[in-house]
Automatic annotation (TrEMBL):
It comes from Nanobdella aerobiophila. GO terms for cellular component: membrane. One of its GO terms (biological process) is protein transport. It comes from the Archaea. This is Protein translocase subunit SecY. PANTHER family: SECY/SEC61-ALPHA FAMILY MEMBER (PTHR10906). InterPro entries: SecY/SEC61-alpha (IPR002208), SecY_CS (IPR030659), SecY_dom_sf (IPR023201).
Length: 453
């Protein structure tokens, strides 16, 4: 795969800091990335038609895309390249030792090269699928407009790639985390609290708000208590799923393997309950949108109907209790729930073995890594113990992620269940990165103090 390394060598990159970046500057740089991405996502593509497809709105939030702007490709190429590289290395297709500096550098170069190829591919797909259409009223040759749009999409993708690199080296966390967190946070806030009407509304700005809470208040004022109550319950369901996701995110299972923590205390080796994180839910969600796209989002198609969010609470508010007594709607909810939960379990199991998180690989890593302070170094003992826990935890992790993702869509949450999960997972990562940044910032002071002693 020297071609990926060659592609990476031609791509612009951000040089790493020559000295330690202070916590204050890390925060400033992180805010700068948010501002620059906001500007990028506010600049429309030249030659673009004003009619933009909104079919992928929820998926675009997940992948940080602002369709019709220079940020149309979003961070999807970076995410996909990282996932593919983990799979290729985990499956042994690429022989890269990421525990060494040379291996890490090669892995990063391959990932950057692959990300650029995904930028090109996604740019082609966005244009050829009709989601981005040129404005033929400009009087410019259509072929020339397509070429200009294609170049703009690639340039926008490269800028996002640089923003991610800059944030990773000079900010608190990666640009991917910052961009997705900002987009979903803003979308969730607007869906819950926005008192304004949609931009296309010809009525008063405040006649029909888009936020759940303002809508509930408006319906209660108008005397439509059933619909007002449904939006209120949907709001409660949104916060309930958020709280439940936070709770699960910090649950850990203690494996009976003695382990020395940073303070030198002997504890049991901890494994996060959500072992495969949000990956299973994202895979299923992306697959659902892809299938619906192939079927052109035809609402008369039974498959498209089944794969659409049931929106139980809102539908009951709009159509009454007769909606839930309809056997077709009940079957729809059950199938949608099973797609995420059962599918999540199998994808989680596959992901564990694909990227080397299975008991055997983890046991080898823990016994060979000198930085892993295990009480025993016998890989057979460690593997045997880990197997009793990782296999069931893998299935449970996929099930719980599928459960939360499907419940969000079934209970009419303000944003998709996957968006809520991703928001919590990234918020946890940013919190951990912030803690590490703070500790790193204090190390020089501690070192000077110790030297004086």
């Amino acid at each position: 795969m020297d071609i990926l390394e060659k592609i990476s060598s031609y791509l612009p990159s951000i040089e790493g800091p020559k000295k330690m970046v202070s916590l204050r500057h890390k925060i400033y740089n992180t805010l700068l990335v948010i501002v620059l991405y906001t500007i990028l996502s506010s600049i429309p593509l030249f030659g673009i038609s004003p009619e933009i497809s909104a079919r992928f709105e929820q998926l675009l939030w997940v992948f940080g895309s602002s369709l019709g702007t220079l940020a149309s490709v979003g961070i999807a190429p970076i995410v996909l390249s990282g996932i593919f590289m983990q799979l290729l290395v985990g499956l042994g297709i690429f022989s890269i030792n990421t525990s060494t500096d040379d291996g890490k550098e090669k892995f990063d170069n391959y990932t950057r090269g692959l990300a650029f190829l995904f930028i090109i591919l996604e740019s082609i797909v966005l244009i050829s699928s009709g989601n981005l259409q040129p404005n033929f009223l400009l009087g410019i040759n259509p072929i020339l407009i397509y070429i200009i749009m294609f170049i703009e999409l690639i340039l926008g993708g490269i800028i996002i790639l640089l923003l991610d690199d800059f944030s990773y080296k000079y900010g608190i966390t990666s640009g991917i985390n910052i961009i997705i967190f900002a987009i979903i946070s803003i979308a969730l806030s607007l869906r819950l609290f926005n008192p304004l009407s949609p931009p296309t509304s010809i009525q008063s700005l405040f006649s029909q708000p888009t936020g759940y809470i303002p809508q509930a208040i408006l319906y209660f004022i108008e005397g439509n208590s059933i619909l007002g109550l449904s939006y209120l319950l949907a709001t409660i369901a949104t916060f309930g799923i958020l709280i439940f996701a936070v709770y699960l995110q910090y649950l850990k299972v203690e494996v009976p393997l003695l382990y020395f923590n940073i303070n030198g205390e002997i504890i049991r080796y901890p494994i996060q309950l959500l072992y495969t994180s949000v990956i299973p839910a994202i895979f299923i969600y992306a697959l659902i949108v892809e299938v619906q796209s192939i079927l052109h989002f035809n609402t008369n198609n039974i498959i498209v109907q089944i794969l659409s969010p049931p929106n139980l609470i809102i539908n009951i508010g709009q159509f009454g209790l007769n909606w839930i007594t309809n056997p077709i709607n009940i079957i729809h909810i059950i199938i949608y729930f099973l797609i995420f939960t059962i599918g999540g379990m199998f994808i989680s199991k596959f992901w564990i073995h694909a990227i080397g998180l299975d008991p055997k690989n983890l046991a080898n890593y823990l016994t060979k890594d000198p930085n892993s302070p295990m009480y025993t170094r016998d890989p057979r003992i460690i593997e045997s113990t880990l197997r009793k826990y990782i296999d069931p935890i893998g299935y449970l992790s996929g099930f719980l992620m599928g459960l939360l993702a499907s419940l969000g869509d079934i209970l009419s949450s303000a944003v998709s269940g996957v968006s809520i999960l991703l928001l919590i997972v990234i918020a946890s990562q940013i919190y951990n990165d912030l803690n590490r940044a703070n500790a790193t910032y204090l190390l020089p002071i501690i070192g000077k103090y110790l030297n004086k002693k």
